[in-house]
Amino acid sequence: MFNSLITARHIVLRGFLLSLLFSGCAAVSGPITNSAAPIEYQRIVRRDPNYSIHVVSINLKDPRVTVQVDRGGPDPDGDGPWLTTLMPTSEIAERDKYDVAINGDFFEAQATRDIEGRNTGFIRGKAAAPVGMAMTDGVLWHRAVTPHPYLEITASKTAIFRDGGLSDPIDAAAREIVAGSQIIVRDGHPVHFTGTFATARHPRTAAGIDASGTRLTLVVVDGRQPELSIGMTLAELSDELIRAGCREAINLDGGGSTTLVYRDPKSKKLAILNSPSDSKERSVADVLGVTINTNPAATGPALRSQ
Question: Is the pTM of this model over 0.85?
Answer without folding.
Answer: yes
